[in-house]
Amino acid sequence: MITFDDVVKVYPGGSTAVDHLTVELPTGKLTALVGPSGCGKTTSLRMINRMVNPTSGRVLIDGQDVSQQDEAKLRRGIGYVIQSAGLFPHRTVLDNVATVPVLVGKTRREARTAALELLDRVGLSPEFAKRYPAQLSGGQQQRVGVARALAADPPIMLMDEPFSAVDPVVRGQLHAEFLRLQNDLGKTIAMVTHDIDEAIKLGDKVAVFRQGGILAQFGTPQELLEKPADDFVAEFVGRDRGLRSLSFDSAASLPVQPVSSQPDLELDDAGRPVRWRSAGDLGGVFTASDSLRVVTDLAISSPVGIAVRVDEQGKADGVVRHHDLVDHLLERRR
Amino acid sequence: MNFSYLFDPEHWELGVPGGFPQLILSHLGYSALGLLLGVIIALPVGLYIGHTGRGSFLAINAGNAGRSLPTLGLLMLMVTLLGLGLLPVLIALTVLVVPPILTSTYAGMRAVDHGVVDAAKGMGMRPLQVLFRVEFPMALPVIMGGFRSAALQVIATATVAASVGLGGLGRLLIDGLAVNDYSRVLAGAVVVAVLAVALDLILALVQRWVVSPGLSGRRVRRATAAT
């Protein structure tokens, strides 16, 4: 657990970067720090590994005040990933990843063996090991950056806009891989981003900052979307937050009508839905593990206004009409 | 004027006083000593200024002032102060090579990507580790550039040693002019020029060897072409 206890950072010249921040980032979870530029999110992140020291207040890791610890040793125990990766251009990919293990006293050989495994872990084949950073694409560099931060197996990772230097398609891939990795590893992660969508997608918790280094709201993504603390947060999370908040609710609780109620739905011999006899293309199906957002999208885009649910074998096992869906959504708000 | 002096085999015999081998050796000796002293002074100062950002005015001003000092004038001043001998020559040559090494070291350090230094600190490198494992290797191509330019200058300028009674290839110029033997002057000029070019080639090879392929872009281009 990372604790900010009434932390203030005032830069020489008098500008306040962080204003009385008190917040707890839970262990094993990803907390996204999000806000407009100049809101103190990066300064807050950098106070965790003492790249910046607070003017007053304390930052604690598992109850230990970081200001009492040796800077270099503290940092070696905290993974650090920055925008555009910050890889060492004069070292091979493998030696980049091996950096921290070598710093903490592993032999170069041990460190390289471990580094090779990590490359695999972040989805890079061994042929990348001998390359130099300049030979990699932005997305590949960022993967190496993540592997390098993971190399000493630190319980905590700090990530400063780790995905903002890559194009949207690659960013989407990296998000998916990163979520999978975090699922396996369960690190305590603090991630700075200016992109609220990224914060909502990746964060278990989201801390929204406003200008002047003030924490505007701290909560789960769903809380942010459904109960924004004030106009600033509402504005910041965006206009379609109602629709987006549906991403966090499972379709499992959604009441369905029996398939037999829809003779217009054509099934094949195995019971799998094929098409609407009257209107043609099905437009897609959903399962009980999908979110309400998926169902809503299907119901809206379906030519007959009906979303079809299938079981694990792909057999149609229910339908949702759009007015039933709207009723359910209204029910959910109460 | 002709090449008779240069191509006279007698002048190339080993161990002959005033022959080419002996003159080249002493010429290289003065140059190497000047370069060595220059590196010992300029490299640490440049690294310190580049690493800390403190005293950058020193790097810039020393660079400019040093460049405008005439080496021959400085040498004469040193001789009047210290008397004849090796020391005044070494001081003059050191003052010649310090500016290019100092300014290139400082410039190379300044050009190191801040993000990379930030990452190095953030991963837990101590200040000296950041300096020697990250900043210095990354600044090395620029530093080597300054060193090569200093080496060229010192080879060309070490001829002044002869004007205060020492050896080196300057002997051919001074003595040749004194007795109107232009063939000898020409020989001295050609050997100095060839020596300078040869040294630069050797240093280019050294640079390939000490600079990481990740920085020079050689490996990079080949690999990208292959994919």
TrEMBL record, chain A:
This is ABC-type quaternary amine transporter. The lineage of its organism: Bacteria, Bacillati, Actinomycetota, Actinomycetes, Micromonosporales. Signal peptide: none annotated. Pfam families: ABC_tran. It comes from the Bacteria. Belongs to the ABC transporter superfamily. SUPFAM superfamilies: P-loop containing nucleoside triphosphate hydrolases. Residues 2-237 form the ABC transporter domain. InterPro entries: AAA+_ATPase, ABC_transporter-like_ATP-bd, ABC_transporter-like_CS, P-loop_NTPase. The keyword ATP-binding applies. It is an enzyme of class 7 (translocase). Keywords: ATP-binding, Nucleotide-binding, Transport. GO terms for molecular function: ABC-type quaternary ammonium compound transporting activity; ATP binding; ATP hydrolysis activity. Its EC number is 7.6.2.9.
From TrEMBL, chain B:
It is found in: Cell membrane; Membrane. CDD domains: TM_PBP2. InterPro entries: ABC_transp_perm/SBD, MetI-like, MetI-like_sf. GO terms for cellular component: plasma membrane. The chain crosses the membrane at residues 28-50, 71-98, 154-174, 186-211. One of its GO terms (biological process) is glycine betaine transport. It comes from Actinoplanes lutulentus. It is a multi-pass membrane protein. It comes from the Bacteria. Belongs to the binding-protein-dependent transport system permease family. Its main location: membrane. Residues 24-203 form the ABC transmembrane type-1 domain. This is Osmoprotectant transport system permease protein.
